[in-house]
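WARN retry 2 of 3 for item q-0093 after timeout on previous attempt; input resubmitted unchanged.
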Amino acid sequence: MAVARPRTFSPQIFQELLVMAQDKNITLPPELNAIAMRYPEKTFYLGQVFNNTTNCYKLVWLLALLSLLERDAAMSLRLTAIFNEMAVIGWHPVCLYRLSLGRQDSLQNVVLEIREACGLAPNARPEAIRRVIEGNLAAQANLSFLKNYVPTRFLTPWFTTQLQGMPDTRRDAAIKKLASDSQGTALASMYYFDTIGAVDVIQFNKLWHTFLLENLAVVRTFAEHNFALYLQARNPNTPGVVRKLRAPTTRQLTAARKFWTFVRAELYTSGRHEHFRDIYSNCRPSDEFTIDHFLP
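OK item q-0093 returned
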């Protein structure tokens, strides 16, 4: 599919976005403030992608896109690969921490079915979970329900005016066409839909692809923050939900211990051993001192 080359961003577009934001009473999420002035059109649309979120699909969809981009930085992604990654992202919240994704959310049921079929541990590493899902045709078939709405409805903020008043049954086809047509404009959607051979894919807009790669950590923080808020609302009695989006990791403090051992040796050699003290208790650590976060 031939797509026109996107035009560069202009100050006039920025003014139009500001007017649109004021008319719709849109407040930019604080996680995106740091990059808003450099990418006003990108943050404008990102700030709306999770509006009216009744299921976790859009949240996990964006996290899956970012995860795949971080690993490969490809310009196109297979829909099946994205759905598989969505199951990987949902694995630890559901299987390890037993969080609810919502009463109407089917991703949770699919993840639990995959675990029951494969017998993988709740705290399995993402690589192992990914291999199991990729090699399980039944699991991929169970995830195919995500194709019906998620990829298209995520792009709704780009086309709110064109979609206004349109029957729900026509929206998916309309969004696909609008996404493709928008690629030749200054406000192109994040991606559009294509088929390579017999494989359904999304093709990233070049400017969006660059933006996501350059601001991966910021956009992931934005997505994870909204995912945590979504989970907290559905698991009100569960503490520390923000720490339960991924599997627990083992902290590696070897380098920190070597550094402070060196500092301790230098102070003792120079006769300033009195200066080697714990910053909280002001006590001198023993020879077998332990290390935690040394900066609050």
